[in-house]
Design brief:
Strand content: 35-45%
Shape: globular
Radius of gyration: 14 Å
Structural class: mainly beta
Distance between the termini: 9 Å
Length: about 120
Amino acid sequence: MKNVIIKQVYAVGMHHSGVRQLDVGPIYYCGKEEGNPKDPNAIAVYEDKNLRHRVCYLRREDAAKLKDIVIYSQEPCYLRAKFGPEKFSRFKGPQQNCNIGFKFDESDATALAAMLNGVFIHTIF
């Protein structure tokens, strides 16, 4: 098994679930949200590893890029907020910079690295 860490992925919509921001430090988990009528590529962020209590989503642009990458994950992806939320525009809500990571099979390392190069800042180890 190998690990990949993808940097500078943004979490959004925290204020819709009651939390104002993700705590910096603790691990959250994320998984593809099947059947989301507004975004078929939606990746939700959950407080628990069983993916039951949703707290926010990954930004739409990030989820679209990650949709073909998270299929390599052997377990739910883990996410850690790096900074507090930032507001980039008066037309959009706050966004929080995070790192996402997951374990994958060693045989998929070349294919995964090719998909990540030029799209995300990442580390495979």
